[in-house]
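Lab notebook page, bench 4
Experiment: in silico fold of construct C2
Operator: M.H.
Input chain length: 194 residues
Purpose: comparison with the prior construct
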Amino acid sequence: MTTAKAAKLSIKLAVVALVAGFGFNVNCPASCAGQIAPQVKQATPAEIKQWFVTYDQIRRQAQMTPQERQQADNLMSKGLSVLMPGEEKIVAQALLTKLVNKYTTAVTSMGQLPLYAQTLPVHRGYFQYFTSAGQLFSDYLKVQNDLFIVDQSTGQPLLSSLMQRKQQLADLDTQIKQLDKQVRAQFGVPSYQY
């Protein structure tokens, strides 16, 4: 096999693996990864609108309240001081635990939404977002208890990856919101309101 053919085959296999991987994660919590995902179907306009109503409720329940956002921003601005023993650490742990629980609930709820071809990219995007956000805040909690904890998958200090992962999550959120806006416009669904 020539190098060009091998490269093309390698790319095709990577695309197939990526598509197959999405099929397993879209409509189930992490505990059922590896099982065959339900069939994606074409939805009627009424089904799409109802899907967005339910999806918006899930987002609202998972979203930080303005007070939680302010509290989180306050805590983040204090840097490592919130990792030291004291009242701020207790407040930070309570907020992080609450956020992990919100995102865990959101992942489960997203897994219960029907899979429609028209909303699948948004569905996948927010499923990934809620999963990643829950894991990120869970890791913040771990670091609060042990600054030197190591990421089991990479062997690197967990603390060193948190800021990069937070930025990646923010980037993902921006991309999904743009996609959400496009799909809503296509089907005449009102914009998301908190």
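Observations: The first helix runs from residue 3 to 25. The helical segments are 3-25, 45-62, 66-77, 87-112, 120-145, 159-187.
Next step: discuss at group meeting.
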